[in-house]
Amino acid sequence: xxxxxxxxxxxxxxxxxxxxxxxxxxxxxxxxxxxxxxxxxxxxxxxxxxxxxxxxxxxxxxxxxxxxxxxxxxxxxxxxxxxxxxxxxxxxxxxxxxxxxxxxxxxxxxxxxxxxxxxxxxxxxxxxxxxxxxxxxxxxxxxxxxxxxxxxxxxxxxxxxxxxxxxxxxxxxxxxxxxxxxxxxxxxxxxxxxxxxxxxxxxxxxxxxxxxxxxxxxxxxxxxxxxxxxxxxxxxxxxxxxxxxxxxxxxxxxxxxxxxxxxxxxxxxxxxxxxxxxxxxxxxxxxxxxxxxxxxxxxxxxxxxxxxxxxxxxxxxxxxxxxxxxxxxxxxxxxxxxxxxxxxxxxxxxxxxxxxxxxxxxxxxxxxxxxxxxxxxxxxxxxxxxxxxxxxxxxxxxxxxxxxxxxxxxxxxxxxxxxxxxxxxxxxxxxxxxxxxxxxxxxxxxxxxxxxxxxxxxxxxxxxxxxxxxxxxxxxxxxxxxxxxxxxxxxxxxxxxxxxxxxxxxxxxxxxxxxxxxxxxxxxxxxxxxxxxxxxxxxxxxxxxxxxxxxxxxxxxxxxxxxxxxxxxxxxxxxxxxxxxxxxxxxxxxxxxxxxxxxxxxxxxxxxxxxxxxxxxxxxxxxxxxxxxxxxxxxxxxxxxxxxxxxxxxxxxxxxxxxxxxxxxxxxxx
Length: 670
Known about the structure:
Blueprint: H1 3-12, E1 18-20, E2 26-28, H2 31-41, E3 50-51, E4 54-55, H3 70-78, E5 121-126, H4 142-156, E6 160-163, H5 206-222, H6 231-245, H7 252-282, H8 296-302, H9 306-335, E7 341-346, H10 355-359, E8 368-372, E9 382-383, H11 391-396, H12 400-409, E10 415-418, E11 426-431, E12 440-443, H13 446-460, E13 463-466, H14 474-482, E14 487-490, E15 511-514, H15 523-528, H16 530-537, H17 544-564, H18 576-589, E16 594-598, H19 599-603, H20 642-651, H21 653-667
Parallel strand pairs: 5-6, 5-16, 6-7, 7-10, 10-13, 14-15, 15-16
Antiparallel strand pairs: 1-2, 3-4, 8-9, 8-11, 11-12
Helix pairs in contact: 1-2, 3-13, 4-9, 5-6, 7-9, 12-13, 16-17, 18-20, 20-21
């Protein structure tokens, strides 16, 4: 096959032969890469003609890719007979149905889209495993999340709390640390259970409760130290405690609730529970199991009785427990006055050996990995070690697997952040054995996938937030905004056309504005230069000295911008704490509907939670919340941290007035 024939074949399958990189320069895909991806896709014709130039009309042939799902079917109906093809309405053909503003009457032929907050709201963004209290078992849990939500709402006026993905990991140690490489995106990790909040815990004998207390004691002692989080120790202790509670008979009311949960979840829960039981026996990578177990249907018949059936029931019970605790978090957050409550986070994909990959072998492409091309921060590209959906096979199933997953993700939250939301439109595929910069973009039917997200958000009455950072084609953000899906604006990367910091009035309104993310250092790490030092030590920078100079220029540029906005006085470089408060005051000047405040920033932490491009070289996702001196900060300590209140006051003017009054009252003599 000639190069021209290869490119033609690739583009017919939705594979882009070139793309615009982060510098807005066109990069041609390597023919070897194109050949590998074409081979992996097979001979299925492309259902979505979506090139780098923007969305185009999809093929009308074959099954309707969205009518199979309830909420999405309603969106298709709302768009009229043309399925969103409004050639006479001034919008591009094939650009999808226009969603009405929230509250529109679906009986009048339109359907309300995802919830769009009418007013500015702010909240903490947290990595929950790192946020602990005195009663935590060495790892943040859902009681900690509820308590933090209630405190931040009542004391600081927060309207939401954004948490990392809580997806389930391996059922037995060793437990993978990354929240973004789960075994399933459908279910939640029992690591986040608060054991003492399980009603049946109170029915244990005194001796059994003492046994559980002995399991918890050393883990609680670790809460007060800056030592890395030991998920294996935490899960081993919680697993033993849960096995003590499991045999206790449920009350009639609780038994009925459990049956209702199992019936609602159906085959998906049964599949997850069976995978857990098998993984405990054969390891967490189904690709290494005995041949008769690699087929989920055969495995179900072989594991439907005996010890494996009992373990499967145990793992299904765990999911019911955590579902009830997730519901309690949202209930308590709203009762405390939050406008939105908890905002969940959906990872891009799953572990190739995990439960979802086992259950959906026909939908996930083996031999390929999802990632990102090189950009200004990750100069060698990224490989996330996750198999991608097969675009045409997903469409052939009416996108129901995507809709079912999103429906579950929205169940107990007021909003959902979708990591790398561009993946609903196109994904960077890296062939196995190739470095992450040798990949190509593969397109998905964006009209169907985005309609699924918008529809499930609308059904839940929730906010949908797309993490649209990195290499993004210009049309993508506009298309998502049309569907009432909020974007994500990151201060460090916000630039005018001349490269200077983006002025506050030029920021988007329909977005969540943040200073950083879990993949970049806290403000203190930037100010001290740690972010360059760490990446240089790990060999992630082509020219460390040039990067250090660039970082200094970035800081100087932002200092000038903060001085211009009268958020800092002119003069010498401010302290890390002063810089942090000023940056959040800057975010408060933007029109962004949501402002996310990193709890790590608010306590002065310097360490990065995750350094992209590393695995064992850096303790990713294992760093507990600490202050700038490296001392552990517990939830109970937050009220006494001046920086926490200063940062919260920066984004909440009403709180700033109250804080001034509080300080004045405290200064008055008795």
